[in-house]
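Handoff note, outgoing to incoming analyst
You'll be picking up this chain. Sequence as last confirmed:
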Amino acid sequence: MHVLLSGIVGSTAYGLARAGSDIDRLALFAAPTEDLHGLHAPKDSHVSTHPDRTLHEAAKWCRLALGGNPTAMELVWLPDELYEIRTPLGDELIGLRGSLLSARRVRDAYLGYASGQFRRLRDRADGTFGADTRNRTAKHARHLRRLCHQGYELYATGRLSIRVEDPDAYHRFGEEVAADPAAALPMLRRFETLFEETPSALPADPDEPSVEAWLRRVRAHFYHRRDDAGAG
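Most recent structure output, in case you need it:
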């Protein structure tokens, strides 16, 4: 497995971590090109806990990012100090991050994920549940707020800030919503309106040819025919 880019994501990257928070890592790797030619394609994602780490194969990561996936997108917008592995091909991808973006896909993905968080909150009823459920509810509320703010920033400006402003406000919002899940709805509706009324800095479609060219450079770099191993 050839890791091209790896970094710390999640609550640590957002500035929302507290004592006991997990450290989440996200990485992108290239499968040996020869392995892609057989009957059975290699596994394109690997997820582990203890440590918490997700790795996506280069092609899968590109498809996720081109679709606007917020979690995948983080990997090419991290502050420098949060990268643990950066290779030349990984740096090329960071340089191409604008090519991955399109207005509709960013809007649909971020608002879609935020709406999903709200549905989870709504299903938790009136807040009369145990401490563990309250903690999960507060976490979902923080995610909703972050997705709204980050998605709107990316949509409106073409840039993504990973670290949130005023982390304490996110935690206060989480506790408020844990007590009354309906309290999250005004924020979601406000950002739906903002997305609708704000002209986007992003193009209508991503620059897929540039991303495809990068992926082909990755495939060429990691192509080593096994029957050449003993040649010479």
